[in-house]
Amino acid sequence: MIHPKFSIRALLNIIRTLDYQMSTFGQPVEAAITSKLQSSLAPSYLKIINESYMHNVSKGAETHFKVIVVTEKFNNLSLIKRHRKINDLLKDELQGGVHALSIVAKTPDQWTNDEIEPSPSCRGGFGK
Question: Is residue 79 included in any domain, yes or no?
């Protein structure tokens, strides 16, 4: 039975909030990457993919990422300058536990669809 002080809508909002918080609780690096790119670049499209599972690392690791960033802030910037901007924003993560970062950086005019080539399978590490 629901307490009379709480409406169904209020309870659903609480559950959604807790679900979101719990989903990012176990992935602090992914959450930090998302937060930094969102706040600094105001992307029209942002996707962070944890590709660590494709490598010889422990389950739940946050070591290999692909970021797809589409923003007007990339207008008039060369591809190398876009990559440098993202690398600079994520320098703490790259100096920490992030071992690899694949970057797709496009302007809204360049972003025609969300079809991105999958990353290749891992060919190195201790699991050769």
Answer: yes
